[in-house]
Amino acid sequence: MIRMELGKNSYNIELERGNLNRASELLNLDRKVMIITDEGIPIQYAEKVAGQSKEAYIKVVPQGEGSKSLQTAEEILTEMLKYQFSRKDCVVSVGGGVVGDLGGFVASLYMRGVDFYNVPTTLLSQVDSSIGGKTAVNLAGIKNIIGAFYQPKAVLIDPDTLDTLPERQLVNGLFEAIKMGATNDKELFDLFLNGGLPKYPEGTASDSSCRWKENLDLIIEKALLVKKYVVEQDEKESHLRKILNFGHTIGHGFESAAHGRYLHGECVALGMLYMSSEEVQEQLCEIYENLGFELPEFYSFNLEEVKEAVLHDKKASNRNCSVVFVSEIGKGSIEEWPMEEVLERLEF
């Protein structure tokens, strides 16, 4: 168990295999529970939580970023009203970052706030988005532009839920852990760089016994400890928490221009390269090769679309943009750059 210390907003992060079977012991489910999941998540995960609840309702939303919308939020809020949820009841998100963001957003709005629990079942959400209290939906093509800081009452992480994920989704989540290591924890980064992720012989695919999977529980724990430290110092992202945006400013631009062809973590992986020194770029590329991630060809993106998305990124203010640059592993820095300089990086 990891304790997030945020005063009256403190909560436990329960990390252990088999935790899903003990949800009623770790979460207060003795009330009405609105469980939000999506079509890409095995329904048995939501049903396992429902089976341990006093009175449960499962809302399955379409898979993908399209569900992070005001319309979907309104649908869920309407159902909660229909089933006469009170301020004593709760919302539980079971799935990845989309339902985590959506569930927290809905919980923050209903009757000015009801309890929220996050049960992340993807690696990306387990190492990053499930903790910290950021909730949001998208609007007019801009990611996470409407939202609130609303901390969960608890986070339940069961690495066994990752067994149903395809390898691409697992690697997608690893990129967020690599981000944590690159900016704050050299030991975590070295789990990927120094033998933790062996290179595969040319012409062969990575097999299921590759060593990063043996280190997976440790990777999750160390990534969570990085985010815990950062959030405890800066809950509302006034300064230090921006360090967690490494790779995201340009990465979000690539993600918008990819139109679904590349996953969030993959676009962050690409974005990190543009905000690193040459030495760090070389190390990142070595890790990407070890992971079997082939960098997208630059011409596969519409550069003007990428630039337009970066210009609309919420971290931009006037003609300046808050960016994270990593010149040395474990020592990311938050800097204010003119937008012109940020866009010039895309020409590298």
Number of strands: 12
Distance between the termini: 43 Å
Listing every helix as H and every strand as E from the N terminus to the C terminus, the arrangement reads EEHEHEHEHEHEEEHHHHHHHHEEEH
**Tally of separate domains:** 2
Numbering strands along the chain, what is their spatial order in the largest sheet?
1-2-9-6-5-3-4
Q: Helix count, per DSSP?
A: 14
The chain-level structural class is alpha/beta
Shape, please? globular
**Major sheet characteristics:** 7 strands, mixed
Q: What top-tier CATH class of the largest domain fits best? A: Mainly Alpha
* Rg of Cα set: 20 Å
CATH architecture of the largest domain: Up-down Bundle
Helix content: 40-55%
Might you state the CATH topology name of the largest domain?
Answer: Dehydroquinate synthase-like, alpha domain
Fraction of residues in β-strands:
15-25%
CATH-wise, what's the superfamily of the largest domain?
Dehydroquinate synthase-like - alpha domain
Low-confidence runs: 197-209
Query: How would you state the average pLDDT, rounded?
Result: 89
